[in-house]
Amino acid sequence: MARILIVDDSPSQLMGIRRIVEKLGHEALTAEDGAAGVEVCTRELPDLVLMDVVMPNLNGFQATRSISKNPATQHIPVILVTTKDQDTDRVWGMRQGAKAYITKPFSESDLADMIVQVMNK
Q: How far is it, in rounded angstroms, from Cα 69 to Cα 28?
């Protein structure tokens, strides 16, 4: 069982993603914006982070960059889970240190497959 941090400012998205993570048998940690996500990630050192992009305080691109540049957290893979579906967004997200990128809305099986794929790398 892995510990997966879900960072999203939408309570309904947070709940939906948490349900998928727990259904896969993992423990879900949550944060409601990018700044809180970086703080929880640094404190809890989860096995994986599912990061929204469009959030207040610190957006997901900034939070991903912070996690991937910090020696204490740079080993933790980040999957960007976002409504931003342009190729430039995808490229920029990967340049910030994300290991994968999935756009909303996504199917439960697509997210589950991506979690398994990234955690097995």
A: 23
Would strands 48-51 and 78-82 be described as parallel, antiparallel, or unpaired?
parallel
Cα distances (Å, whole numbers) of residue 29 to 5, 21, 40, 44 = 5, 10, 8, 9
Would you call the peptide bond into 11 cis, given omega within 30 degrees of 0 as the criterion?
no
Query: Whole-model pTM?
Result: 0.97
- Please, what is the average pLDDT of the chain? 97
98-121 residue pLDDT tens? 999 999 999 999 999 999 999 988
